[in-house]
C-alpha cells in the first residue's frame, strides 16, 4: 500500500486515537489535529515520539492549510454530556469544521471521510435503520446541536461532491465503545462500567427496555478504513453492530463481568432519547465485506480492564 499523509481531526479523542494507531500501523504519515475539548494527550502519548506522527493543537472552526492526501473528519464532541455543555460550539464544530475540511480537500484534491452518526436518524420510526431513511429529529430539542449539526455536515459533503467533485466518503457511526472512552462522558457503556467498578448504583433511564447496538472500537475502525480505501461507494454507510441489546441487559452483563454488588436504580428518560437504535448493515456487508467480529462480552472485558487502570491508577 502506498504511504500517504493522513489528517485526522479529533485525533486525540476516543475514536481518533485508535484511528491514528491504525494509520501508523499501515505505514502512513499522520497529522493529528485536536483542540483538546474532549480529546486527551494521554490517548496519543505513545505516538508523540514516532517519526511519522505529528500533533497540532487546532480548532476546526478555523481553516487549515497543510499538505495531505487523506482526511478523516472526526472532530466533534460525541456524548450528550459534552455536546450539550456548549451546544452552539457543537453546531459550529460540525458545520464550520465540515466547511473548512471540505475546503482543504478541494484545494489538495484529497479524499475526505466524514464521521457522521446514527443520531441523524433521531428517534427512529423505522427499525432497523437503513441509509435511505431520512430520520425523525427534533430540530429545536436539547440534542439538536449534535443531531442537526451532523445532518448539516452530511449536506455539505454531498453538495461539495456534486458541485466541486470533492472525493467524499460518509459513514454513520452507531454506538461504539472500547478503551480510551472518557470516564465521564455520560455514555451508557462508560457510565455502567465506572459505576460498577466504584460500587455506585447503576443508573438506568426509563424502564431499561430501550435498545442499543454496541460496536467494539476495533471493528468500527476497520469499517472506516475499508470505506476510505474503496472507490465504489461514497455513502452514507452505516457502521455498527446489528446485535440489539436492551440497556438493562447491558447493565446486568457489566455487573457480571465486574463482579460488582452495585444496585440498579431507575430515573426518568431524558428528552428526545431514542427508544430503539439498530443499524441495518447490509450495505456495508456488500460493499466493504465488513461486519463486526468482537462480541459484546469480549469487548466489555477489554473495556473494563482499561477503566480499572484509569480509575485505580
Can you give keywords for this protein?
313 residues; 10 helices; seven-stranded parallel beta sheet; alpha/beta; globular
Summarize the structure.
The protein is α/β, with parallel strands linked by helices and 313 residues long.
The tally of helices reads: 10
Q: Which structural category do the helix and sheet elements fall into? A: alpha/beta
Helicity, in percent?
25-40%
Number of strands: 13
Physical arrangement of strands within the biggest beta sheet: 3-2-1-4-5-6-11
Low-confidence stretches: none
Main sheet? 7 strands, parallel
Description:
The strands form four sheets. The chain has a seven-stranded parallel beta sheet, sandwiched between helices. A two-stranded parallel ribbon has the order 7-10. A two-stranded parallel ribbon has the order 8-13. It is globular. It has ten helices and 13 strands. 39% of the residues lie in helices and 17% in strands. It is of the alpha/beta class and 313 residues long.
Amino acid at each position: 500500500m502506498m504511504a500517504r499523509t493522513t489528517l485526522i481531526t479529533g485525533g486525540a479523542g476516543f475514536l481518533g486515537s485508535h484511528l491514528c494507531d491504525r494509520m501508523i500501523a499501515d505505514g502512513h504519515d499522520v497529522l493529528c489535529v485536536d483542540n483538546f475539548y474532549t480529546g486527551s494527550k494521554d490517548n496519543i502519548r505513545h505516538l508523540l515520539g514516532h517519526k511519522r506522527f505529528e500533533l497540532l493543537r487546532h480548532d476546526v472552526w478555523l481553516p487549515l492549510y497543510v499538505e495531505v492526501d487523506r482526511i478523516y473528519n472526526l472532530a466533534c464532541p460525541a456524548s450528550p454530556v459534552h455536546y450539550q455543555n456548549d451546544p452552539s460550539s457543537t453546531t459550529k464544530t460540525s458545520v464550520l469544521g465540515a466547511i473548512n475540511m471540505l475546503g482543504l480537500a478541494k484545494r489538495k484534491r484529497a479524499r475526505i471521510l466524514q464521521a457522521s452518526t446514527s443520531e441523524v436518524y433521531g428517534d427512529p420510526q423505522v427499525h432497523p435503520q437503513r441509509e435511505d431513511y431520512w430520520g425523525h429529529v427534533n430540530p429545536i430539542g436539547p440534542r439538536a446541536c449534535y443531531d442537526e449539526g451532523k445532518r448539516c455536515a452530511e449536506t455539505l459533503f454531498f453538495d461539495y461532491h456534486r458541485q466541486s467533485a470533492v472525493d467524499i466518503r460518509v459513514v454513520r457511526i452507531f454506538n461504539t465503545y472500547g478503551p480510551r472512552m472518557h470516564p465521564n462522558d455520560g455514555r451508557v457503556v462508560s457510565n455502567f462500567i465506572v459505576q460498577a467498578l466504584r460500587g455506585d448504583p447503576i443508573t438506568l433511564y426509563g424502564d431499561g427496555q430501550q435498545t442499543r447496538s454496541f460496536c467494539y472500537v476495533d471493528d468500527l475502525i476497520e469499517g472506516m478504513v475499508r470505506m476510505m480505501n474503496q472507490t465504489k461507494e461514497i455513502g452514507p454507510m452505516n457502521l455498527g453492530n446489528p446485535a440489539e441489546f436492551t440497556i438493562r441487559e447491558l447493565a446486568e452483563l457489566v455487573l457480571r463481568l465486574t463482579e460488582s454488588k452495585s444496585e440498579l436504580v431507575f430515573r426518568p428518560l431524558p428528552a428526545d432519547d431514542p427508544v430503539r437504535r439498530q443499524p441495518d448493515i447490509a450495505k456495508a456487508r456488500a460493499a466493504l465485506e465488513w461486519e463486526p467480529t468482537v462480541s459484546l462480552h469480549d469487548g466489555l472485558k477489554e473495556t473494563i480492564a482499561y477503566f480499572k487502570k484509569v480509575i485505580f491508577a
